[in-house]
Amino acid sequence: MTADDSYDRFDDDDYPAYTMGRAAEMIGTTQSFLRAIGEARLITPLRSEGGHRRYSRYQLRIAARARELVDQGTPIEAACRIIVLEDQLEEAQRINAEYRRAAAQQADDTTAD
């Protein structure tokens, strides 16, 4: 591994850089909360060679959103489902925007002829 490879990991949202303890501390929750959302399959932490859970920044953002919902009184299973649905909606909106841009570009190309 080169020094450049190490620095690239700092920018990689999916790199599993954080231990369970550090992850829990960063989002202000407990390790058992992280285990619970893992059991609910909201996030699946990677495992170190020693078998310890490791979390990425992307997973921490998801966990923080789950914590926010649970703190508002939402049951953990419902919070996980809400987050999955929010993610699906965001993806559908992104795809829809791409289709609209493509259709607009096609219409512009047709009128330019």
How many helical stretches? Answer: 5
Which percent range describes the beta-strand content?
5-15%
Low-pLDDT residue intervals, each spanning 5 or more residues: none
CATH class: Mainly Alpha
What value does the average pLDDT take?
90
Structural shape: elongated
Q: Helical proportion? A: 55-70%
CATH topological fold name? Multidrug-efflux Transporter Regulator, Chain: A, Domain 2
What is the succession of H and E elements? HEHHEEHH
**C-alpha termini separation:** 53 Å
- Compute the number of strand runs: 3
What is the domain total for the residues? Answer: 1
Estimated structural class: mainly alpha
Main sheet record: 3 strands, antiparallel
Rounded to an integer, what's the Rg over CA atoms?
Answer: 19 Å
For the largest sheet, list the strands in their spatial order. Answer: 1-3-2
Examine the secondary-structure arrangement and name the CATH architecture. Answer: Orthogonal Bundle
